[in-house]
Design goal:
Blueprint (H helix, E strand, L loop, with lengths): L6 H15 L14 E16 L4 E15 L4 E14 L5 H20 L2 H7 L3
Antiparallel strand pairs: 1-2, 2-3
Helix pairs in contact: 1-2
């Protein structure tokens, strides 16, 4: 499996957009007076087709780690695991695989940008 496009860029754009929807001012390089800094580490992206006798299971997983460093001295970090799983009877097409991988990535990123403890750290609380 290959990924079309720049995964790092796609993830960065999605995180920036989501944080802006939470009313954060996002800059990609931290100024000295930043309230907090967020670092996101992409840990793994796996796609598995587990075929049985008549049907199988497709399981895509995306693991990331979010690390907040607050200027107030409170730090927070957590792992997030995005998952897409479905039952299949045929090997999916490349287009379908793209959708499934995107769903797993989206799930992991959604967990990160909607984690109330992470948002509080980023707000400097």
């Amino acid at each position: 499996m290959t990924i079309a496009g720049d995964l790092q860029g796609i993830v960065t754009t999605a995180i920036v957009s989501a944080l802006q929807k939470h009313n954060f001012l996002v800059v990609l390089s931290a100024p000295a007076d930043a309230v907090a800094m967020l670092r996101v580490e992409m840990r793994s992206l796996e796609a598995k087709n587990i075929m049985g006798f008549r049907a199988g299971t497709l399981r895509d997983e995306f693991a990331i780690k979010g690390i907040c460093k607050s200027a107030g001295g409170k730090d927070y970090e957590k792992f997030y695991n995005g998952l897409f799983e479905t039952s299949i009877q045929f090997v999916p097409t490349g287009e379908a695989n793209d959708r499934y991988v995107s769903a797993a990535v989206s799930d992991g990123l959604s967990q990160l940008v909607n984690d109330n403890d992470m948002l509080r750290c980023l707000a400097g609380e």
